[in-house]
Write a sequence for this structure.
């Protein structure tokens, strides 16, 4: 049961005056940081030959991490909606791809939590039914460990 409320502001923890007993707080500690970018190639096939590609909207649908000694293993599900023109009508086709890999991080160890800031960009060329893509995934990772601190 919690007996006190503490307030965290920036790097400071404000504790209520005159605690009745020692106060224990769990604080996230950044163990390691890494910033990486990866390029994957993919080919999408449209059901018809488009007059032109109007736009491709992409987003990250799912992001999974597993931390092992020295590495962070990731699976990123990138989904996209391709809007194209066919017979003077705008059509839409959806796709999802899973991209996997690992990032070497010397201080990584099992049990650490991953806090991730990710982004995706699609660069493409179209040829007949095919869309040839370069998928750029940017990741900014922090590995966190939670520690108890007695105040």
């Amino acid at each position: 049961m919690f007996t006190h409320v503490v307030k965290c502001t920036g790097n400071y923890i404000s504790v209520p005056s005159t605690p009745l007993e020692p106060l224990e707080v769990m604080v996230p500690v950044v163990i390691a940081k890494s910033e990486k970018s990866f390029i994957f190639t993919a080919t999408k096939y449209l059901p018809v030959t488009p007059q032109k590609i109007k736009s491709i909207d992409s987003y990250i649908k799912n992001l999974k991490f597993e931390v092992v000694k020295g590495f962070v293993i990731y699976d990123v599900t990138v989904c996209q909606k391709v809007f194209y023109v066919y017979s003077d009508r705008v059509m839409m086709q959806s796709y999802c791809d899973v991209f996997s890999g690992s990032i070497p991080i010397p201080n990584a160890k099992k049990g650490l939590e991953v806090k991730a800031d990710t982004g995706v960009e699609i660069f493409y060329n179209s040829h007949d039914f095919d869309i040839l893509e370069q998928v750029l995934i940017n990741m900014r990772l922090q590995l966190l460990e939670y520690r108890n601190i007695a105040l």
